[in-house]
Every structure is written in C-alpha cells, then in structure tokens.
Fold:
Amino acid sequence: MALRPLIAIFGTTGVGKSNLAIELALHISKTCKGARIINADAMQVYAGLDLITNKVPDTERHGVEHLLMGFKQPGEQYVVGQWVKDAIRAIDETHLREEIPIVVGGTSYWMQHLMFPDRLAGTQPETALVLSESITSALTSLPPHLLELFNSLPQQPPDAAVDPAAASALHLLLLHLDPAIAARWHWRDTRKVFRSLCIVKDTGRRPSEILSEQAETVLKPRYRTLCFWLYAEPSVLHRRLDSRVDAMIERGLLDEVRALHSLSQQPASTDTDYTLGIYQSIGYKEFHGYLTAPSQTETAFNEAVENMKLSTRQYAKRQISWIRNKLLPAINATNAEDTTVPTYLLDATDIGEKWISRVRDPALQLSRDFLNSADLRDPLTLSETARTMLEVSDKPVDPTAVLKAQRKVVCSVCTVDPTQPFMVDEGRLAAHLESRPHKRLVNKKTPEQYKEENRLRRLRQTGTPKVTAESEVETETSSGSLFSS
Ligand SMILES: [Zn+2]
Structure:
C-alpha cells in the first residue's frame, strides 16, 4: 500500500512554525478537503500556561483544528511513546476524513519517532527474554562473584568517588559481557556502565550488537512525508526571543505562574507530580522561585527575567543541535533508499516582509507539488542558508561510529591499582604518552612496564590492533594492561 501523506514542520521556538502551519492548512483546505494540525510540542500538550508555552490563541487559529494540544493535566506524565501512539491515531483519523495531517512542533525528538518507526526502545512487543549466544557464553565463563553481581544488580549505579571498588566491579562485569561497549565507558562513569548492564539484563543481548544492528537497519518512514525546517539566524532569533519574554511579562506571565503554582498546592492525586510535565516549562521554573521567595525584590525579578531569557536561548540551541545531529541524519539515511523524505529549510530570519517570499510562498508551492505527487525542486536551491545548513548535516547516521570515537584504552604505566585502571580516550593517547605525569612514571618503570610502553607506542603508530573480544577480556583481567576493541 502506498504511504499516506504527512507534512511536518519543525524548528526552534519563536520562528513562526504555528503561523506557517495555519497558513498551509488554510491553503490546503482551498484545494483538498482540508487539513488538521497535530501538536508536537511537549509543553503545549498541557492545559494551562497558554502564554508561556506559546499556544496559538483560538482567535488566531482561523478555524483550523488543532489536535493533541492542551489536553493533558499540568502534573500528568506524558512521554514520547504515548505521544507517538496518540499522534498516529490522530493522523489515521485525518486520513480517513481524506484530510491532510500537518505535524508541528519544537519537540523534534517526538517527531523523529513518529516519522521513523522502530527506533524507540520498548516499542517492540514483549516476548520472553532469550539470551543471545554471546551473552550466554559470556555468562557461563563469568567468575562466580561477577555472576552474582549480574544476578543481583544494584537498583542504582554506585558513586565511583564513594565506592570505587563497586564501580570497577561493575565495569569489569560489563567488560566480560560486552567488551566493545565497556571500552566506550570509563569505569568511573558508573551511570553509563550501569545503563549498559541494564540493557544486557533487559534484552539479553550486547548493547554493541544492538547498536550495530540499528546502524544497518534502513529507516523506513511511516508516512510519505514532506518536511519543513523553519530556520532563523541565531543572532536575530535570540533578539526575537528576548523581546518575546518581555512581551509575555507584559501580557500576564506572572498570573499564569501564580495560577499554576496554586494548582500544585491542592491535594495531589497519585499520578500527579508537580516537578514534571508543564512544571518543567521555561518561565515557570524561573518565576516560581521569584514568587515563592520571602521577599520579592526588583533585583530578584530582573534576575528571573534574565534567567528565563537565557534558558530560552539555550533551549533554541539544543533544538537546532537535535535537528542537525539527529533528525537530519535520520532523514538523510532514508534518502539514500527509494523512499525519500524531502526536507526544505525555509529562511524565517526576517519574519516581516520577507516572510511571504521566503517562507509562505515556497511552502505553499512545495506542499501543492508534494500533494499532487509532482517533481519537487532540489532543497539546496532554495537559499544560500538552505545550502549551508542542509549540507553540513550530511553525515551517515551510524551509532557505531560514536562507539568507536569514544573508545578508551588503559595506560598500565599510570595504573596504580589494576582493579581501578587509568583510562584515556584513544584519540588522546598520543598526547597522554607525551604528558608530564605519564613520563614521570615511565622513568620509574619495571621491565614489564617497558614492554607495555612499547606496545602503547606501537598502537599509536599503527592504530588499533585487531584483537578478538575474548582475548581483550583475557588481557584486561589477567594483567590489567591495555585493551581495546
Ligand atoms: Zn600513562
């Protein structure tokens, strides 16, 4: 069956996504049966804080239906998996009515999981846990104390500073179960080591194998999708965001915060958490502190304003980096195959008179062509900004590349206690070998350490030697010397 159409609009806060969506919906309604807007903003799903979360007021919606907006209670938890399910339902309904769904929002993470299925852990149907061959064989050769540790993993990762022995034991366990992933984490990074062990427990498989598999799986889009990335030059955007904060304050931001705060003072139902959901929105956090302080000085107020502006700008930066580093690579990976996801950057730096020529008109034209299944123009020809921003992100989405990039090696010269090895990023090994602390220890080295030193130098010259996973574990556990994968 041919994939059904979907239009997606993403971009940072304050670039005019909602306006574009409404203009598109109205335009489509003239030619097709209609269009509905589906909200993909993690804060706008909640009721309340309409101003702070930038919900389009009813009066500005021009009768266009907005779904999944303001329908969750402020303290309710609502996460990506639930949203994807709700969005799929809303899109199905829209298609049944022969209308066009337009998904709009700043939570690109949600959109990505909607556009490309099967990437979310936990979305697979639950089946009985089957241990993979590699895990089975690793478990059978585990020393008893590590097997016991695996069978009774702690609830929380230990703090390496407080309990280094527990931290290194966890790392050693991971090294036996999945050497490749263990080489990625420093033993002190207990949170990541622990998380990898939990994946082994939950899936019965090596995290590194799961990663490689994901790298090989070609992402198939769920819908025939047309994407618009609404983009504004950061310097211009930041000024715009700053003045938006000032405007919000004038229009009653403090009243919204007060109202929401008083809600949180009422007796809570069991599924309500006043630190989650909308209580995490930018603006609430900053002004809640100000409002609940014993005295509300002008200085404290100004500080809250500055903090909100800063948080907003930082949020916009994070949004851009998600789009460039996660979403676009996922889209590009799809584009390598037969099903493509055409993605256009629309330059919304100037939302005044250039909005029509740079944003609205190209979007309307492209949507028309897309819905008529006509040939679409090359996204890079749209503007100079489009060429720059879309081209730099053209790198393969390969999770194993990250794995390789962060690989750690043990410097046995600098290791005092073999159970708590001294680890260096492989990429920094050359610098480490030349460093003063390392050289000082080299001068005191034993014959074994001389050998090790030469080995490290060879590694530096020739790159990583190809060794099997098993022999690495052997090397590491028997002598506490260099390992890599
Ligand atoms: Zn060293």
